[in-house]
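User: Please fill in residues for this 327-position structure.
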């Protein structure tokens, strides 16, 4: 007799349909978001699931974790883990896999795309041509990017990849992190404020969490100054979006490029009316190649965790949180 495939709770649809199909081919899948009565379904069937798949964007709330008494492993599609219910997962000793490394290049590429677009007004220029304005007037002069100062807040894998891109643009790089990165050739500045003061372009690649929430505030934006540009490819929560709107409206900074927002998919309406900000719908990792690599890692993490109890790439919860881990 053939063994039946393990049951898998998919929190919602994956960002690439082929992964939905691959999961359905290997597991007995239930998609929670497709259940009319989510709480009722969990109350009745929660104990049947040991494995869950979700994404960094969808996350996994504590009430779902608590409704799955036999949960052993969560495989998350994405590198961010701020939307996963850390306390409930750690308390229950649930292992969590995620997809670091494979998206660094595409996220860094997107940081540069936003930086160049914001500096050179590319999206605004595109609108200008399409409106037919070119036959009536000249497009205004923009800001040079090459040779300028690039500040990176969060010098992890993605920050380091952004720094490598910068050398092709002859940019000087400095960064701020919780602590200096050993062996980094770049200037370490002791605070985000000092980094903002130093930077022409400030790129945010920091991990989101309670300690970085709204850390890019009015004071930091004022320090970046009227010639400065902000680029955010991390999480919307790191930037006080209302303060950013005020800074863009008042000319306190020159412009911004944003892939992430505080309340996705709802950027503050005031942002939509501004020509000095470039908006993209949280797609920094959204290439065929990178999403495929992320999908592969989601599947590998599941397979290895089922076989050995240990994912290939496990979420590095903070040291304090891990120390409090039970089980
Ligand atoms: C994901 C992301 O594509 O990896 C992350 O943390 O935010 C994105 O790369 C997204 O979460 C998938 O839904």
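Assistant: Residues filled in for all 327 positions:
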């Amino acid at each position: 007799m053939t063994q039946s495939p393990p049951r898998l709770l998919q929190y919602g649809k994956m960002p690439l349909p082929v992964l939905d199909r691959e999961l359905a081919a290997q597991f007995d899948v239930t998609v929670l978001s497709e259940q009319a009565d989510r709480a009722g379904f969990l109350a009745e069937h929660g104990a049947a699931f040991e494995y869950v798949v979700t994404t960094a964007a969808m996350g996994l709330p504590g009430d779902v974790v608590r409704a799955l008494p036999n949960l052993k492993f969560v495989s998350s599609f994405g590198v961010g883990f701020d939307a996963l219910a850390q306390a409930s997962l750690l308390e229950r000793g649930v292992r969590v896999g995620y997809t670091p490394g494979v998206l660094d290049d595409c996220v860094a590429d997107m940081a540069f795309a936003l930086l160049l677009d914001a500096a050179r007004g590319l999206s605004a220029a595109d609108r200008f041509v399409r409106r037919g304005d070119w036959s009536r007037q000249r497009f205004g002069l923009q800001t040079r990017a090459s040779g300028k100062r690039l500040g990176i807040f969060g010098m992890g894998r993605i920050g380091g990849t952004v720094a490598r891109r910068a050398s092709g643009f002859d940019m000087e790089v400095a960064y701020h992190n919780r602590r200096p990165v050993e062996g980094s050739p770049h200037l370490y500045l002791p605070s985000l404020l000092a980094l903002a003061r130093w930077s022409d372009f400030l790129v945010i690649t920091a991990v989101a969490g309670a300690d970085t929430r709204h850390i890019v505030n009015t004071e930091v934006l004022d320090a970046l100054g009227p010639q400065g540009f902000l680029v955010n490819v991390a999480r919307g929560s790191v930037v006080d979006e209302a303060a950013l709107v005020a800074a863009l409206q008042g000319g306190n900074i020159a412009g911004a490029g944003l892939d992430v927002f505080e309340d996705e998919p709802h950027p503050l309406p005031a942002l939509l009316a501004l020509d000095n900000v470039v908006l993209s719908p949280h797609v920094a990792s959204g290439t065929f190649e990178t999403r495929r690599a992320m999908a592969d890692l989601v599947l590998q993490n599941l397979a290895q965790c089922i076989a050995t109890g240990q994912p290939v790439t496990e979420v590095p919860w903070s040291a304090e949180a891990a120390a409090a881990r039970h089980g």
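For context: The pocket of 2-keto-D-gluconic acid is lined by residues 15, 55-57, 77-80, 103, 285 (CB under 6 Å).
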